[in-house]
């Protein structure tokens, strides 16, 4: 139940970011839920593998390469989900940063 609630909060964050950020489009609420679900799966399964594979570059850039990994995963979700559109790499990078920020805020508000 807790996972489902977090997916719905992430979908809310996706809708809010799509409204605020030009270059990101989400067709409807169902698409936002799919984006939240797929991004959650990608970040929990594929991201740790990519972090291990790119560890030397991540250390060399003092962790900034993790932003590139996040943007690449957002672009991968963009290719998989119809109705979700991100215009380019920099938009995906900003989307991933804002998504992390909004998720942190929403999760902290719900925790208390």
UniProtKB/TrEMBL annotation:
Keywords from the named record = Membrane, Transmembrane, Transmembrane helix
- Name of this protein: Phage holin family protein
Q: Which InterPro entries does the record associate with it?
A: Phage_holin_4_2 (IPR007165)
The answer to whether keyword Transferase applies is: no
In its UniProt entry, the species of origin is given as Lutimonas vermicola
Membrane-crossing residue ranges in chain numbering: 33-55, 62-81, 87-110
């Amino acid at each position: 139940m807790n996972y489902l609630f977090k997916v719905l909060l992430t979908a809310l964050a996706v809708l809010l970011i799509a409204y605020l950020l030009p270059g990101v489009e989400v067709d409807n609420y169902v698409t936002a839920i799919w984006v939240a679900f797929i991004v959650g799966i990608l970040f929990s399964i594929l991201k740790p593998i990519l972090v291990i594979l790119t560890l030397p570059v991540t250390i060399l850039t003092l962790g900034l390469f993790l932003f590139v990994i996040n943007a690449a995963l957002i672009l991968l979700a963009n290719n998989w989900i119809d109705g979700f559109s991100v215009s380019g790499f920099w938009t995906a990078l900003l989307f991933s940063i804002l998504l992390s920020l909004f998720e942190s805020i929403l999760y902290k508000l719900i925790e208390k």
